From TrEMBL, chain A:
Upper lineage: Eukaryota, Viridiplantae, Chlorophyta, Pyramimonadophyceae, Pyramimonadales
Name recorded for this polypeptide: U6 snRNA-associated Sm-like protein LSm1
Subcellular location: Cytoplasm; Cytoplasm, P-body
Species of the source: Cymbomonas tetramitiformis
InterPro entries documented for this protein: Lsm1, LSM_dom_sf, PTHR15588, Sm, Sm_dom_euk/arc
Domain (Sm) ranges: 14-89
Automatic annotation (TrEMBL), chain B:
Stored PANTHER family: U6 SNRNA-ASSOCIATED SM-LIKE PROTEIN LSM3
Subcellular location: Nucleus
Protein name: Sm-like protein lsm3b
Keywords: mRNA processing, mRNA splicing, Nucleus, Ribonucleoprotein, RNA-binding, Spliceosome
Entry keyword Ribonucleoprotein: yes
Record InterPro entries: Lsm3 (IPR034105), LSM_dom_sf (IPR010920), Sm (IPR047575), Sm-like_LSM3 (IPR040002), Sm_dom_euk/arc (IPR001163)
Keyword Membrane attributed: no
GO cellular component: Lsm2-8 complex; spliceosomal complex
GO biological process: mRNA splicing, via spliceosome
CDD domains: LSm3 (cd01730)
From TrEMBL, chain C:
Domain Sm: 2-76
Protein name in UniProt: Sm-like protein LSM2
Listed PROSITE patterns: SM
Source organism of the structure: Cymbomonas tetramitiformis
InterPro entries, per the entry: LSM_dom_sf, Sm, Sm_dom_euk/arc, U6_snRNA_Lsm2
GO cellular component, one term: catalytic step 2 spliceosome
Top-level taxonomic group: Eukaryota
Organism taxonomic ancestry: Eukaryota, Viridiplantae, Chlorophyta, Pyramimonadophyceae, Pyramimonadales
Length: 132, 97, 93
């Protein structure tokens, strides 16, 4: 931080080159809307706009997982939360079972409905307690 | 340079924050979060480093039957925390006598 | 540049990055850039059960704009140096 230290540091890397080492590797991308995409990183820029090849969305519900094929994606940087290299030896968490795209979509929908129902049910039960 | 006498004139908002260095301040953040801690560093974006920080998170649930508001707060302590400026709503310097 | 310079001094140390989506990741700081994008190595998600997708990820790049907090190692904060650097930065802007 001090000026003496700054002189000892190597020259600044060019802005927005942080992802060079991640090129051509399989990456997991978390988007701001919560979706998780997997694909091979082919290009990026200083905004973290990304090009993903052979991309798919990975959905996990309980013990099940499913992949929805997407193809070639250009992702606008501001929607990127995180990018992580996928360890090829453990791409799929050990305890999960693969299901089809339509099955996992259905499971995800069911899970969302259940969470909503649970919320309203709990509140109703609280109300009953008060009355009782 | 560091021993130079501190300029105590206030010409712009951030001067007030400069005068709060090493003091305990209150920071209100987006997402119903509040921090109280000692200010160790800041920049023009209001990125900050706070020390001995207490964070308070407030959640409000509305009972959809009785329309009662249930307000819950949770607190935690962090020794040193970098805070990104884009989440800051306001900073309140310590009260001066 | 104050925080960029500061984070560079923390490279190799353990930090916990808390994101605006409430995901919290602990890891060793690998690098940081001018946007305060952060790369972590040997990462561990604090609430692993809630983020099963992250189990196959050991290193990651976090976009600076999605960071809410970074919990800093106690040994990585020298308050006097920070105060001086902050005053210098304030004079410069």
């Amino acid at each position: 931080m001090g000026s003496t230290e700054a002189e000892g540091l190597p020259p600044l890397p060019a802005p927005g080159t942080a992802l060079v080492e991640e090129l051509d590797k399989k990456q997991l991308i978390i988007l701001r809307d919560g979706r998780k995409l997997i694909g091979i990183l082919r290009s990026f820029d200083q905004f973290a706009n990304l090009v993903l090849e052979d991309a798919f969305e990975r959905i996990i519900v309980g013990e099940m997982y499913g992949d929805i094929p997407l193809g070639l994606y250009v992702i606008r940087g501001e929607n990127v939360v995180l990018l992580g290299q996928v360890d090829p030896t453990r791409e799929v968490p050990a305890n999960l079972t693969k299901v089809t795209a339509s099955e996992i979509k259905q499971a995800q929908k069911a899970e969302k409905t259940e969470v909503m129902l649970k919320g309203t049910m709990l509140k109703r039960m609280d109300f009953l307690d008060d009355v009782g | 340079m560091a021993t130079q006498e501190e300029d105590t004139t206030v010409k712009e908002p951030l001067d007030l924050i400069r005068l709060s260095l090493a003091e305990r301040i209150y920071v209100k953040l987006r997402g119903d979060r509040e921090l109280r801690g000692q200010l160790h560093a800041y920049d023009q974006h209001l990125n900050m480093i706070l020390g001995d920080v207490e964070e308070t998170i407030t959640t409000v649930e509305i009972d959809d039957e009785t329309y009662e508001e249930i307000i819950k707060t949770s607190k935690r302590h962090v020794q040193y925390l970098f805070v990104r400026g884009d989440g800051v709503i306001l900073v309140s310097p310590p009260v001066r006598q | 540049m104050l925080f960029y310079s500061y984070f560079k001094t923390l490279v190799g140390q353990q930090v916990t990055v808390e994101l605006k989506n409430d995901l919290a990741i602990t890891g060793s700081l690998h690098s940081v850039d001018q946007y305060l994008n952060i790369k972590l190595e040997n990462t561990r998600v604090v609430d692993e059960g809630k983020y099963p997708h992250m189990m196959s990820v050991k290193n990651c790049f976090i976009r600076g704009s999605v960071v809410r907090y970074v919990q800093l190692p106690a040994g990585g904060v020298e308050v006097d140096i920070l105060h001086d650097a902050t005053r210098r930065e304030a004079r410069g802007t």
